[in-house]
Amino acid sequence: MLGVLVNVFTVFVGSLIGLLFKKGIPEKVSSAAMTGLGACTLYIGISGSLTGENVLILIASVVLGAIVGTLLGIDSAINLLAEKVEQKFKKDGKSVSLAEGLVTSTLLFCVGAMTVTGSLTAGITGDNTILYTKATLDLVSSMLLASTLGVGVLFSTITVFIIQGGLVLLSALVAPFLSLGAINEMTCAGSLLIIMIGTNLMGITKIKVADFLPAILFAPLLYNLVPFILSVLGL
């Protein structure tokens, strides 16, 4: 768990630094930075989406994820829980979008091959090298995110700990189901969500990205089910 704790610490420190810089940044500069951050997020999402090997798995994962997420009302639930906290951060009649910062940073910090492979490797072999590398990258990312999206990024330290810590603790159980191919499909689906975040940050769209989160779970599940179904059908 040492690698996870280091990663959580770097996100916490980076977020604090970003929040301190945010206070002295003019609104027009902040807006420009948000657009730039959105463009960089698009690049990250597009790069990650190219790891997928089966576009049908991606389509099925996103569609099923959207259906399940919308029926469960994930986005609404997150915003509802965030509303009370947001009231504490109001300034000049405007409130910092805690939910947006939380969801955006959580996806960027927790979706990707480094999160999965790093956590599994740490849990199975005790080697935290990948998580240490990821922690360094997240230090910089959290500073940029917090300076534009606010305090929600700081709260993502909780989700980073839960998700990565959970993977480390469950590594022995989930490792057999997360082959390189499964990780690639999960990264691809998650990266598509990151692309949605990028367009949101640039003001192009207003997608409820949280409602698509189940797609990340469907991707590795379908990757493992498709060969089994084909073998049963004799194809």
Description:
By secondary structure, the protein is mainly alpha-helical. It has one domain (2-52, 75-205). 79% of the residues lie in helices and 2% in strands. It contains 11 helices and 2 strands, in the order ααααββααααααα. It has helices spanning 2-22, 27-49, 55-72, 74-86, 98-110, 113-125, 129-149, 152-169, 171-174, 180-201, 214-232; strands at 90-91, 94-95. It has a two-stranded antiparallel sheet. Helix 6 packs antiparallel against helix 7 (129-149). The N and C termini lie far apart (43 Å).
Short description:
This protein has 11 helices and 2 strands, in the order ααααββααααααα.
Per-chain topology:
Elements (H helix, E strand, L loop, with lengths): L1 H21 L4 H23 L5 H18 L1 H13 L3 E2 L2 E2 L2 H13 L2 H13 L3 H21 L2 H18 L1 H4 L5 H22 L12 H19 L3
Antiparallel strand pairs: 1-2
Major sheet size, sense and barrel closure: 2 strands, antiparallel
Can you write the helix and strand succession as a string? HHHHEEHHHHHHH
Mean pLDDT: 84
Q: What integer value in Å does the Rg equal? A: 18 Å
The tally of beta strands, per DSSP, is: 2
**What are the low-pLDDT stretches, counting only 5+ consecutive residues below 50?**
none
Shape: globular
Strand percentage lies at under 5%
Q: Structural class, judged by helices and strands?
A: mainly alpha
What is the terminal separation in angstroms? 43 Å
Count of the separate structural domains: 1
**Helix count?**
11
Question: Helix share of residues?
Answer: over 70%
- Please state how the strands of the largest beta sheet are arranged side by side: 1-2
